[in-house]
Amino acid sequence: MDRRFYLVDAQVLPEVFLKVVRAKELLVELADISPEVVQMAIAPENGEALPGWFVVEAARDIPALARRRNGS
Fold it and tell me: Where are the domains of the chain?
């Protein structure tokens, strides 16, 4: 795994950190099927929003994770 700055500290909250990493991986997999659905999941129109820190991390990390997954 890349050494990057994460808003969730793996040392302090390892179970949360692992769930965040997995959630981003699942969003990357979903993006292969439908980027529009990922956009709706991250920024839903019905007012049920994800935590801001997760949206920031996802927006930052998903493009790189997708490139890595697709071998680019």
Answer: 14-69
